[in-house]
Amino acid sequence: MIRLQKEMDKKVRKGKIIDRNLDNYELQSIELSIWDFSEVSDGYIYFLGEQKLTYRDKKIIKTSYPET
């Protein structure tokens, strides 16, 4: 799962998914929601669903959780 997070984070930061500069944001989580089975083909199982990436503003993190 960590590899998936890193790959998705790279795509988002390169602007391939959204049009916002994420240099001031930090990836918090990736949520996968599967709602239907699609097919089995060539040794793979396919599911239909959605993916939710959550980023948090680094400035908010610093002010909410100051380093001690």
Describe this entry's structure for a reader.
It is a single chain. This protein is of the alpha+beta class and 68 residues long. The chain contains 2 helices and 2 strands; from the N terminus they run αββα. The protein has helices at residues 2-13, 58-64; strands at residues 25-41, 44-57. It has a two-stranded antiparallel ribbon with strand order 1-2. The model has no long low-confidence stretch (mean pLDDT 77).
Secondary-structure topology with pairs:
Blueprint: H1 2-13, E1 25-41, E2 44-57, H2 58-64
Tertiary shape: elongated
Order of helices and strands: HEEH
Question: Structural class per helix/strand content?
Answer: alpha+beta
Return Rg in Å: 16 Å
Can you count the beta strands? Answer: 2
β-strand percent reads over 45%
What's the total helix number? 2
Strand order of the largest sheet: 1-2
* Beginning-to-end CA distance, first to last residue: 30 Å
Give a short account of the largest sheet: 2 strands, antiparallel
Fraction of residues in helix: 25-40%
Low-confidence stretches: none
